[in-house]
Amino acid sequence: MIPLSLTDLPLGQPLPWSLFDDEGNCVLGSGNIIRDARDAALVFRQGELCRQDSEPVRPNADSGRAGKGPLGLPVGTLLHAKRPEDNERAAASRLIGFMEHALFISWPQQGGREQAIEAGESLLLRGFSGQVIYSFRSTITAVCRSPFRYLVLSAPTDVEQIPVRKAARVPTRLAAFLGKEAGGEGEERLVMLSDLSLGGALLHAAEPAPTPGSRVRLRFQLRTAAADSELDIVARVRNLPGEAEDAGFPAFGVAFDSLGERELTLLHCFIYEQLLSGARLPL
Predict the structure, then answer these.
(1) In which element (H, E) is residue 270 found?
(2) In what residue span(s) does the PilZ domain sit (predicted)?
(3) pTM above 0.90, yes or no
């Protein structure tokens, strides 16, 4: 990753690369436009940003998902893994493939460092299918280092299902574009999503907040199961308590109108991947 400063951002023209936070989460995708220095300061408001050495080709979530493996977990699913005896935070991995009686996962990492793992060890894993959080146990049957580092696991055992009742509100750092409900050229402005739930979001803007009760259109991109999807949601502006205000960048809430099945599924997946990633669900 290459660290960026405010002066590195091209203003008024499409970004040549995506912007990432210090944990590797995409904040704003390439091709989007940061209008002026005020919007650039808004993007940097929550901390430093960086870009990748080269922009990789990402799979498009709308062009069709990869097949689902055991337990209904699709390839790309975020997994949290730990040894049964460990009391520390679980390491992060992803499901990269499967076959009969076997799973293939990326090498578990914690804080950007690969974990020391050997064949024959047992792992406890957790992943979100989009509807259910699964917890299960597998044994490492092979440790592979070529052409890249990954693990081969036995078929899941001791499977438990954790029902998903209502998605929590999770902190985020996502750039979005806010416009009038009717849309139109040149009417969108950059905002930052500070937290997100199935029902709405907290936003910060470089300009005064819209009138409470007004209807707006919010466009932003989510990454779920290693694929990017754009959401375009109609919402209603809500008042916020005084303590949520930011003198430099006004804060306001939005409540989402009725969401379609696609939007609900993507939000569900994103929120629970964030919960897993932040270890807010104990493993």
Answers:
(1) helix 261-277
(2) 165-272
(3) no
Phi, psi of 112 (to 5 degrees): 85, 0
- C-alpha 250/C-alpha 252 separation (Å) is 7
Q: What is the number of structural domains in the chain?
A: 3
Residue finishing a domain among 163, 188, 205: 163
Do 25 and 72 reside in the same domain of the chain? Answer: no
Residue 226 has pLDDT above 70, yes or no: no
Task: Decide if 58 is inside a domain.
Answer: no
The residue behind tokens 């750092």 is 173
Ranking 20-24, 27-31, 35-39 by mean pLDDT, the lowest is 20-24
Q: Are 191 and 177 in contact (CB under 8 A)?
A: yes
Bridge pairing between strands 150-154 and 157-163: unpaired
Q: Which amino acid is at 193?
A: L
CA gap 23, 27 in Å, rounded: 11
Could you tell me if 190 and 159 lie in one domain? no
Domain with 268 in it: what CATH number?
A: 2.40.10.220
**pLDDT of 182-201, one tens digit each?**
655 557 899 999 999 888 99
Query: Would you list the DSSP string of 148-202?
Result: S-EEEEEPPEEEEEEE--SPPPEEEEEEEEEEETT--TT--EEEEEEEE-SSEEE
| Least confident segment among 129-133, 170-174, 217-221, 249-253 | 129-133
Same domain, 81 and 133: yes
Query: Rounded to an integer, what distance in angstroms lies between the CA atom of residue 66 and that of residue 51?
Result: 27
| Element of type H or E holding 126 | strand 122-128
CA triple 261-266-270, angle to 5 deg: 150
Q: Residue 235 belongs to what domain range?
A: 170-277
Through-space distance between the first and last CA atoms of the chain, rounded to whole angstroms = 30
Residue 108 in domain: yes
